[in-house]
Amino acid sequence: MRTSGRRANTSAQAGQPADGVVPVAPADGGVPPADSTASPEEGTASPEEGAAFSEALSEDGAALSEDGAALSEDGAALSEDGKRLPEVGAAAPAPGAAHARDSDFVQSLDRGLAVIRAFGPDRERLSLSEVARATGLTRAAARRFLLTLVRLGYVRSDGREFSLRPRVLELGYAYLSGLALPEVAQPHLEELSAKLHESSSISVLDGQQIVYVARVATKRIMTVAISVGTRFPAHAASMGRVLLAGLSEAELDKYLAEATFEAFTEQTVTDPDQLREIIGEVGRQGYSIVDQELEEGLRAIAAPIKDSSGAVTAAVNVSAHAKRHSREAMLTQLLPALLETARQIEIDLKSQGLG
């Protein structure tokens, strides 16, 4: 993963609104008040959100691109004769910049999704400036995307800060509703958790992260609440290492070359060569145990769930507080039941033609 930068806003060419008045953005990053003549659409939740439905003007008052140029339908900047304008002055790529010359890549969609991803468990409410910093976009661009999301019902605004609305769940429901694994595995997780009195989860690999798709929790043992949809970097999670062990050699090489290995505790392994050795051992032994690498006091052990061809499609784990189970106890007391649960899930998936 790479840290994205964003070019400075250059809107010198942008014109003023028709009445010649240039709205001034508040210094605190809030949304400028709507023109008194603006009429928000019927059914808006509040006057503040009505303001969000006003013209999405850039910081110097122009409803143009960040460079002051008109935008094409796919978000690319156009010159007066309709030709695409080159990117200028970027210190580092912005969201989607690596695909800027791909005619099939819609950069504006990429940026809009980046704005949604800026929100999270510890970032429930963000100001315009905070969204801009989190996404690498200019304030002008971030404002336009936020106001569009407000109008579409995915984001709300109180005039100073933005937050997600429940409608954003629609974006992930289509995937989860078509995923048979959670439904098949849930009874097995419940049985495993009841037997061991520990939390159990299933996740899949998505890029450089794992995504939880099923979970049965007994007690909260992490500072971060875990639920379906929670993500963690693969390198520091027991299920992540199981899933990485299922990659081809070329895929693993690509992951180790591109991923950023953050140290969450003093025990977190961040050296790519050492991770390669650990992942190789996980593949040979058929399980992974992570000892306080993701969070102090947390131990977890994971096993693969494979399809009929032997490919690793998911991972199942059991997590416990380090005070309750030593590393040796994880192997002797928890691993046998975990491996049997993975086997039963595989059998059920195959019997339903899903594995």
What can you tell me about this protein's structure?
The protein is α+β, with helices and mostly antiparallel strands and 355 residues long. It folds into two domains: 47-169, Winged helix-like DNA-binding domain superfamily/Winged helix DNA-binding domain (Arc Repressor Mutant, subunit A, Orthogonal Bundle), CATH 1.10.10; 179-351, Beta-Lactamase (2-Layer Sandwich), CATH 3.30.450. The chain has helices at residues 47-52, 107-117, 128-135, 139-152, 170-177, 180-196, 238-245, 249-258, 272-285, 327-351, and strands at residues 70-71, 77-78, 126-127, 155-157, 161-164, 199-206, 209-216, 231-233, 288-291, 298-306, 312-321. A six-stranded antiparallel sheet has the order 8-7-6-11-10-9, sandwiched between helices. It has a three-stranded antiparallel sheet with strand order 3-5-4. A two-stranded antiparallel sheet has the order 1-2. The longest helix is centred in the C-terminal third of the chain and has 25 residues, at 327-351.
